[in-house]
Structure formats: structure tokens, C-alpha cells
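Could someone model adenosine-5'-triphosphate with this protein?
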Amino acid sequence: MSAVSVVSAVEVRDLRVELGGAPILDGVDLTVAPGEWVTVIGPNGAGKSTLLRAIGGLVTGIGSICLLGTPAAKLRRRDRARMVATVTQSPVVPPGMAVVDYVLLGRTPYIPPLGRESDADLAAVREVLDRLDLSGFADRELATLSGGERQRVFLARALAQGATVLLLDEPTSALDIGHQQEVLELVDQLRHDHGLTVLATMHDLSIAGEYADRMVLLADGRVAAAGHPREVLTEQLLARYYRARVRVVDGEHGPLVVPVRAAGTRVRSAPS
Ligand SMILES: Nc1ncnc2c1ncn2[C@@H]1O[C@H](COP(=O)(O)OP(=O)(O)OP(=O)(O)O)[C@@H](O)[C@H]1O
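Reply:
Sure, complex below.
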């Protein structure tokens, strides 16, 4: 019987990143299979964004990062951008730029140097604006959009990039609950329709557990736990690493994490 080798979409081995002279990530290993959705969780400052930035080539570290089987260090910028699209937590908003032009920036890896965008590039932008319900904003200046509208535009730019691996750093933090579900369902739909791989960070643990195939808990720059959401979203691990008091209950699509006040916390009665 011949062995079938499956190339990982993302493979990180023994990654160490220092920023400002301090170790931020230390000995991090992570594998994401093609088509998988992995969500990295962890308390503030754990190193989640730094991990995504390192995989996206936005910060450098020591160790190895392979993208679809190729060492990232060997990839040209354009080729890496065709493989991996990143939505960072606070992307720069170029002053005076219209939404359609911002989303068109996602097509940069396909436009020849000194060349112009093709009809296919413009069609890809139109399609993604449509899918994210942003067509009505196409000509608006990006800076004038609300936080949630902008967040959808940032995602639109990443989707327009047509990469197979999406790195999403807190992709729904500014969205209302309806748009959160809409955007995450869309990402999940694209994952199924186009075989996208998703590596995300999220603070909403219930939502994170509903969408992820696997989760990784980062704490102090190291992997503290990894596995199925049921193995990572436990009251014990969340108490230990977040110092949070929570109840974890079974939901239809994964564990639901409910914050609870300490027993005996005084409840103020309403003034009569
Ligand atoms: N350029 C930098 N120079 C020095 N320290 C940095 C730099 N960038 C990030 N850090 C530090 O690295 C640590 C990890 O930051 P990172 O943004 O990766 O954490 P995070 O887990 O994404 O946090 P959050 O949940 O708050 O977004 C933090 O302590 C942060 O202050």
C-alpha cells in the first residue's frame, strides 16, 4: 500500500519571535490541514496576533513556517500573497480611498508591475463586494464607514486576494451579532465551496468554538492546549489561563462559554 502524503496548508515548527528585545512567541508548533478552520485563543498579550503576523510574513522569527508545503522564506512576496491573505486587527485606512479601490488592492498579486487591473480583477472585486453586501458602499470613502462596515471591507479585500489560506485576526470584533454570524457563515461557505483554510483569532469563545474544527490556546507565547473545541474550552483551562469564572455548556455546534459572577457577589437591589 503506498503512503499518501497530505501537505499541510500551514506548518509552523519551533517558532520564536522577539519584539522590542523580549520573547513574544517561544517554541510554537502549529499545523493546519487544507480546508481546516483553526482558531487561536488566549488572553490579551498571549501572542495570537504575533503568530498570525509571523505566518503572514509581517514579522520575522526563528524556526520554520511552511505554506502549502513550501518554506515561506523561499517564497517571493507575490507568490506568498497568492497563497495567504491576512486581515490584521487594525488595518491602515488610506485617506481619501474609495471602498472599491481599497478592495482592488487585494488583486495586487495578480496585476503585473506597471500594469493595470484586468476585467477579471474588476469582476472579482464586484463579486466579493456583492457577497459581503457592500455594493452600495463601493464609491464611498473608506474612512467614512462605520467600524463594522469597515471590518467587512477589510475582509472583502482579503477575499478578493483569492488566496487559499485566510488569516483572520479578530475578524468580527466590531460587528453586531447579526453581521458576525453573516460574515462567519460566509467564510465557512467559502471554505466549503473553494477549499479555503482558515486560521483565526477570536475573543468570543462560544462563537470561536462553533466554527472551529480545532482550537489552540496560547498563553505567554506558548501553546498551552490544542485540540477539538471540547478539549480546549473547559472550565479548568479557562480558569487557569484567563483567570475567568465560566460555565461551559453543550451547544448544538460546540461548547458555549457563559461568564458567571462569583458566588456571594452582592446584587444591588433597585432603588424603590
Ligand atoms: N512591536 C512590538 N514591540 C514590543 N512588544 C510588542 C510589539 N508588538 C507586540 N508586542 C507585545 O507582544 C505581546 C503579544 O502581543 P499580541 O498582539 O501578539 O497579543 P495578542 O494575544 O494578539 O493580544 P490581544 O488579545 O490583546 O490582541 C504583547 O505583550 C505586546 O505588548
